Amino acid sequence: MIEVRGIHKAFGRLQVLRGVDLDVATGGTLVILGQSGGGKSVLLKAIAGLLEPDQGSVRIDGKRRDELTPAEAERAALRFAYLFQGAALFDSLTVGENVTFALRRFTGKSVEELRAVAEERLNWVGLRGIQDKKPAELSGGMRKRVGLARAIAMDPAYVLYDEPTTGLDPISSDAIAELILSLQARLQSTSIVVTHDMALAFKVGDRLCLLNQGRMHAQADKEAFRALDDEVVQQFIHGRAQGPIQFL
User: DSSP assignment of 132-178, as one string?
Assistant: First the structure.
């Protein structure tokens, strides 16, 4: 379980998170919704340990992240996988080298074993025979899939998706949604998806929450969330610009 309590984060005078509380139960998929620039990615990075909050705490399986020893922090980090918005592939490496980057850093697997893992994980995301290509040779959707293959190469307990469908056409976006569902079933991991793509949210999410003006505005199981009698929630679901949502 992941427990977020009272998280605050500011960048200069811009207060992005203003006391966020969030529980992520083991298994299933939690979707964090919110407008662009509203702090979703900042919250995700705080959960992953990529950003240090100004106040508050993140507990992973009951242990506060900021109280872990360096060795414990490294072990905790290896349980997380993070799919960045732009996939964040290393242009100088081949696809196979990208997928096995963490394995080469943290395991003693042979070259043959690394290629086998890369081939398997690429097959899982619907890509075959591209190990020796460079990222520049791939489409945007293919790069997203390679980033996903890299994220799951270490069999993570937690998979964090930061705007996984940004920049993709509707068909490619739906393919990514199907991949998230299939990998969730295959890995039995806990997934957190940050998005403002409502089709994706309702397709993959078991539980949805809405971040608004730096605070957690609403949380509910998928169907209960859809039916919430809340103007801000309904405004976001239906894409209406009028009403109480304000830019930070």
Answer: TS-GGGS-HHHHHHHHHHHHTTT--SEEEEESTTTT--HHHHHHHHH
Flag whether pLDDT at 248 surpasses 50: no
pLDDT band at 57 (very low <50, low <70, confident <90, very high): very high
Least Cα distance to 172 among 217, 138, 135, 212 occurs for: 138
Residue 242 pLDDT: 57
Task: Please state whether the predicted TM-score (pTM) of the whole model is above 0.70.
Answer: yes
In 3D space, the residue among 186, 198, 208, 191 whose CA is nearest the CA of residue 83 turns out to be 191
Q: Mean of the pLDDT values across residues 77-85? A: 85
Long-range contacts for 172-179 (Cβ within 8 Å, ≥24 apart)?
172/140, 172/141, 172/144, 173/197, 173/199, 173/200, 174/199, 174/203, 175/126, 175/141, 176/141, 176/144, 176/145, 176/148, 176/200, 177/203, 177/204, 179/125, 179/126, 179/145, 179/148
